[in-house]
Recover the amino acids of this structure.
């Protein structure tokens, strides 16, 4: 690009997306005189899902703003907690975020997840069709115009990913109400009616407490329960009252 030169300043939260030499202070960018500010920001590496307010010489503008020579642009981070207008808050996770999806479901958060790689176009279409917030570490996916809403997942550690999503979107938490395997709602189950689905040792030792109404999976307080309960307790302590 070889047109009007503008100066951009990125919020510290966005520095992860831009090269080191563009961090810190204002950085000069030559635009083409016809691209939108949203496009310019994206072309510098920042997904628009992560950009909050855009200020030109101190006044808010839309992503459709066409920058003019000499403008000073401030790119802020999204405000947390982030309100997603429209449908009830629900999510769609890409193929790399299976562990995060199961953690979110454990807390009762609606988290659809494709265990097979259906491709960016299909994921984006699904996000739009079901009005789900697309979660991904793939910036290319988040740039797709079709997605309903999206968020970049900053960490590659599940614990940090979960905390990030809960802090950012403040979803209502309802632990032990959703199937971690398929995202379906759990219903009450009694031992007699699910007997044939249990191993003998399980029958003797554990109390069944729920069954998935979608896939039929049975939940009981077994070997993994203490570990899962610890995850639930920690999340509820920190985020359980956030959306009340
Ligand atoms: Zn299920």
């Amino acid at each position: 690009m070889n047109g009007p030169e503008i100066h951009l300043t990125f919020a510290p939260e966005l520095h992860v997306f831009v090269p080191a030499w563009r961090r810190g202070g204002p950085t000069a960018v030559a635009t083409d005189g016809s691209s939108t500010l949203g496009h310019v920001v994206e072309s510098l590496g920042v997904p628009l899902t992560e950009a909050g307010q855009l200020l030109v010489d101190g006044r808010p503008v839309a992503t459709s703003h066409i920058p003019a020579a000499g403008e000073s642009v401030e790119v802020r981070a999204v405000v947390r907690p982030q309100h997603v207008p429209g449908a009830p808050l629900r999510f769609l996770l890409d193929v790399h975020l299976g562990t995060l999806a199961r953690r979110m479901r454990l807390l009762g958060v609606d988290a659809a997840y494709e265990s097979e790689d259906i491709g960016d176009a299909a994921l984006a279409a699904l996000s739009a069709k079901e009005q789900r917030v697309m979660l991904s570490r793939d910036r290319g996916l988040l740039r797709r115009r079709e997605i309903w809403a999206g968020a970049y997942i900053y960490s590659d550690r599940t614990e940090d990913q979960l905390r990030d999503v809960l802090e950012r979107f403040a979803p209502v938490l309802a632990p032990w109400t959703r199937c971690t395997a398929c995202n379906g709602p759990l219903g009450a189950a009694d031992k007699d009616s699910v007997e044939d689905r249990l191993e003998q040792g399980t029958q003797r030792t554990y109390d069944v407490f729920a069954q998935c109404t979608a896939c039929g999976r049975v939940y009981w307080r077994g070997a993994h329960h203490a570990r899962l309960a610890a995850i639930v307790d920690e999340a509820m302590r920190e985020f359980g009252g956030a959306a009340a």
Remarks:
- The pocket of zinc ion is lined by residues 179, 181-182, 184, 212, 214-215, 217 (CB under 6 Å).
- The mean pLDDT is 92.
- The longest helix spans residues 225-239.
- The chain has three domains: 5-77, 80-174, 175-223+233-237.
